[in-house]
Amino acid sequence: MNWLLFLKHEMKIDWSHPEDINGIWQSEKGYSIDFNGPNGALCGLDPLLYPLKLSGYVMYENLSYQGDGEWKAERYNWKFPPGEAVSNGSWQFEAHVVLQLTADKKAITDNWRTFRKIN
Fold first, then answer.
1. Which of 42, 83, 99, 115 is a Cys-bridge partner for 71, taking CB atoms 3.0 to 4.6 Å apart?
2. Is 84 helix (H, G, I), strand (E, B) or coil?
3. Which of 24, 22, 49, 54 is nearest to 38 (CA)?
4. Residue 10 and residue 4: Cα distance in Å, rounded?
């Protein structure tokens, strides 16, 4: 008696690539992030909302591609003492976050922040 055995093997294909995050991504909050390599720096700041001296500072650091449109990163935020001018603040570590790319590769979310690719 001859036996024929078929094995079903499902191969998961990663639809995203590490370089998909590279470029400029715009927030609805009046600023953009330029992701390039392991960091994401502020750019395109609305001068009515943010001190221009923040432009170029790293907001996301140590980006690490996880696959399936996900990157882990360290997020920094500009903090200033209550009652002080915004310009008197400093960059401080805020959280370890996961950036999630949408399937159409046109947006990235970080918890409550959404960025749309503009370049």
1. 99
2. coil
3. 22
4. 19
Under the phi-then-psi rule, with left for phi > 0, alpha for psi from -120 to 50, and beta for the rest, what region is 8?
A: beta
Higher pLDDT, 106 or 80: 106
- Cα–Cα distance, 64 to 73 (Å, whole number): 6
DSSP tag of 21: G
pLDDT in tens, 5-46: 555 555 556 789 999 999 999 999 999 999 998 999 999 999
**What is the distance between the alpha carbons of residues 89 and 73, in angstroms, rounded to a whole number?**
22
Q: Are 102 and 115 in contact (CB under 8 A)?
A: no
Element of type H or E holding 66:
strand 58-67
3-state secondary structure of 20: helix
Predicted model pTM: 0.81
* Burial readout 51-80 (b: 16 or more C-beta within 10 A, e: otherwise): eeebbeebbbeebebeeebebebbbbebee
The pair of three-digit structure tokens given for residue 72, joined into one six-digit string: 């882990």
